[in-house]
Amino acid sequence: MSEITVSEIALRNAIESDAAALCAAEREIARTPGRLVSAPDEFVEENFVRLLRQLDGSGTYLVAERDGKIVGHACLPPAAPLRALAHVRFLNMVVHEGNTGQGIGRRLLLGLLDASRRNGIERIELRVRATNTAAINLYRKCGFNEECTSLRRIKLADGRYLDDVSMVWFAPEKAP
After folding, report:
1. What's the pLDDT band for 4 if we cut at 50, 70, 90?
2. Does a structural domain hold residue 1?
3. What are the angstrom distances between the C-alpha of 47 and each of 28, 69, 107, 165?
4. Average of pLDDT values for 114-132?
5. Domain count, the chain
6. Extended strands (E) in 47-114
7. CATH for 117
8. Which CB contacts under 8 angstroms, 24+ apart, belong to 143-150?
9. At residue 15, what are phi and psi to the nearest 5 degrees?
10. Between β-strands 88-90 and 123-129, what pairing exists: parallel, antiparallel or unpaired?
């Protein structure tokens, strides 16, 4: 198999007709315990449609495509529906099965950071499993800093626990 280059990946704004594919991808990834917080049966296509409508046109819900097929997606929904938190977004990013390690996550993340600057987003928060060192390293390289580790935050069906690392990015002109 030939190595995929990031230049073969196109980013575009997600659209409502992507909802089924995005939902299916997250369901598939959630089949591996601990990869996502949600269980496969907790993903509902209508929730994707609702979020796509909410973020439509803002550039804050992106999909990565290769040869017309979605291979990753990422979005920045508001952290909370409160005026005092209007400057804060929460990062949700998924590289679809079989497409990791190819620069897709980095491409999506950089696209969202560009959109954040244009949309006046000042703070982006995320949570990542403490064991996901590849993702943590990517976030650090893109300007995120660790805020804390939440011990035993995720409880798996078999009773095991996973720790989450909370990270944050500040718009450069708004950095503390």
Report:
1. very low
2. no
3. 17, 21, 25, 25
4. 95
5. 1
6. 61-66, 69-75, 88-90, 92-95
7. 3.40.630.30
8. 143/113, 143/169, 144/168, 144/169, 145/169
9. -125, 165
10. parallel
